[in-house]
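Data card: per-record layout.
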Amino acid sequence: MSRISLYLLAFTAMPLCAQFDSATVLGVVRDSSGLGVPNAKLKLTNVRTGVEAASEADGTGTYQFLTVRVGRYKLAAEATGFKTAVAQEFEVTVNARQRVDLQLEVGATTESVTINAAAQILETDTSSRGTVVGTQQIVNLPLNGRAYADLALLAPGVRRSGIANSRDASFNVNGMRSSQNNFVVDGVDNNSYGTSNQGFSNQVVQITPDAVQEFRLETNNFSAEFGRAGGAVINASIRSGTNDLHASAWEYLRNTSLNATGFFKPVNNQKPTLIQNQFGVAMGGALVKNKMFVFGDYEGFRRISRTITYATLPSLAMRQGNMGIPIRNPYTGEVYANGVIPTCPPPTTSGPARSASATTSNPSPAAPTRTTRATSATTSTSTTSGPPSSATATG
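The structure for this 395-residue chain is written out next.
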């Protein structure tokens, strides 16, 4: 099984459509007295890609940057009669509402002031409750089977589902069924819809962990824009290229020679054959610096497994009723010490008394009527050979 993914992100001056994975950067620009600075000009810059977005504060100094992709940013604000304020670099996570408040000092615009801790660590502009799992956790934490969704178990209120061994991304959130979770990748529905929850995964596309930038597991009070979910919303964002070329390669090997024997001794002291290889590569970079980026990944999966299984078939003697050991009849409690189950005798048939009667009548009206009366006789059948005996008396 192989998976190939190719993601092309183009940044131009055209406005972008809203996506569930995009974030919002918002805040207020104030002066030293705490009043809002109207019409302040702001510039948001992605540190890794160099992509810039511009905005202008309203009459109260409030601003917003919508559809901000996941990444590391810096924010600058300037206004006439004030020094330029530059916020220290901060991270924007998937579907977050990141508040960054700036304070301007009186001075020339050509001067700049760096503001530390301008970005709030605690997200207070949304009621959603959830956990963000970043790139380092996804790549470095051990994952049996390399399923990024298993890291959802790090969040409170999440437990492994009973069908998790046979169905990928199956976990219960706040007591809800695993089928009630909503999987989203870059704003696209990634739920696997099947009759009676059949299939091998709850996701249509099982993303390689090295291709996931981060994902947010929202377990309560998430926005109504998602819908469908009664359990949780798993909102994943794919990595993108940057101005710097970055690549990674991996190989995860399981081999019979390296596998442990296990608690129980294997049959004939021979370990079951298991050879498994998971390998791949991920690469990203810039096609046009500060404008167009590309990212792609490939993952292959190969598995060979063989086990030795023994089954016991009944011998000819057993099929004839000779078990070779004492047998107890579970219905009657009788014990057959010689191990031979006796054959059942042929059934004896006996019916009710058979009566023979004959009535002879002359249908001719001119002839006299003669009636013959027969007494009943019993017909018995014996198991010995010979015709059954019968007796009939007439009078």
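Known properties of this structure: Confidence is low (pLDDT under 50) at residues 4-19, 353-395. Residues 8 and 294 are 5 Å apart (CA to CA).

See the next section for split statistics.
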